Amino acid sequence: MSKLQALKNFRFPNVFILILVVFISCALLICINFFTIKILSANRAYVNGESHYSKGQKDASRHLITYLFTKNPAQWKLYLEELKVPQGDGIARVTLLKAGDNKIARKGFLTGRNNENDLDDIIWLFENFKNVSFLSKAINEWGQGDQLIFELFVIGQQINAKIKHNILTTEDQKKYLKKISSISDRLTINERNFSNTLGEGTRKIKDLLIITNIFFILVIVCSVCLYYSIMVKRLLVSKKETEVKNENLVIVNRELDRFVYSASHDLRSPITSLKGLIEITALEDDVQQVRNYLQMMHQSLARQDQFISDIIDYSKNKRKQIIMEPVSLKELCNEAILQLMHIENANKIKFTQELLVDNIESDGLRLKIIINNLLSNAIKYADCNKPEMFITIKTYFSEGLNKLEVTDNGIGIHDDYKSKIFDMYFGTNKNKGSGLGLYIVKEAVENIKGDISVFSENNVGSKFIVTIPNSYAV
Ligand code: ADP
Prior knowledge:
Heat Shock Protein 90; 11 helices; five-stranded mixed β-sheet; two-stranded antiparallel ribbon; Sensor_HK_Regulatory; alpha+beta; binds adenosine-5'-diphosphate
């Protein structure tokens, strides 16, 4: 198989699939990065919010303790002010858990001193990821923290009531201080767990993001490389095709030049000899000699006729499309023999036909050209010195193919000429033919994707075997 054929036979994957893969990968990459950045940004906002929550709770505890011991109403106010921060976050958490009004949740988060610009991301993350492991754990810690904030609030109310009624004892102060400290310690644990859980989630998301980014970038790079290599291969194939077409054009051009030169020469030569013969006939008085000249003129014209008919065959073979049709080999052989009977000595030859294959599916025109030329050669190159001249035509089916065999006991082909007989204008006897016959036969055989072989021995005879494929898809 030629390199070009191998390249042509290579099945290219559909490049549109590759372009689609690249587009989808890019789109997914953009989406994944967008949402990951959104999640990470929301996580950061939560950690930020937690620090406000923690600070608020600690400041509230501090102001409550100061109030507990100083009974200064300003401290009570400050305590209430600071306690609002974790309480606001708590309201937002409860509202979002119940899938309540987002406005209330926003208000709660704002009270929790969260930045207004972060609120959308914070609410979005809560709503969409509240059941995802890391956030659900963090929300759980948050809930426990809110419970402790409520306890702090209740203690605050109790302290305030006792101060207001002036019944706060030293014992109470010690008891409340202990309680506030205990709440503060437990809240610190919850707050730390909250931050750690979110931090863990953030790290996991970051790792996932790196992996997915690497994966999609690899998919894109591989697809682009594959696309590039396919395009390069396609370019190579089309370059090779163009080169082959160019080479064929050069060959055809050269052939055409040679053809035109030889055709004009060969068409003129019988005319020249005819003119000469006419001139000498005009001067001749001897009737017998005139008859001889006329015979020679006839031969010249026959040669011209043969040559023109060869040119027509050549042209038909080159231009006409292959048409698959039912063909009778028997009919083609009989027609050819009848047409060729005018050739000198044809009537002295014994024709034998052994046609085991008759009706086949092939190109009628090409088969006619092949049979006519092989038979006309067998007649033209018959050996008149042999006591009995014969031509045998056989058709048979062998190795899955139809075969046509033309055998004669003519003059045979000299070993030196065997390799040249299929060349354009090669002929050993210019009086007998144009040298185009076997060249046209070879082209016709190639057109029907068949094969031709020759076996010949000088002075013994020749055998031409043509292989005709069963059916040839055009
Ligand atoms: P031409 O028109 O000269 O016959 P062909 O191409 O048909 O041209 O044949 C080329 C040459 O091959 C002939 O000149 C002849 O020498 C040789 N040749 C072809 N067929 C036969 C045959 N059956 N017996 C002997 N020689 C043959």
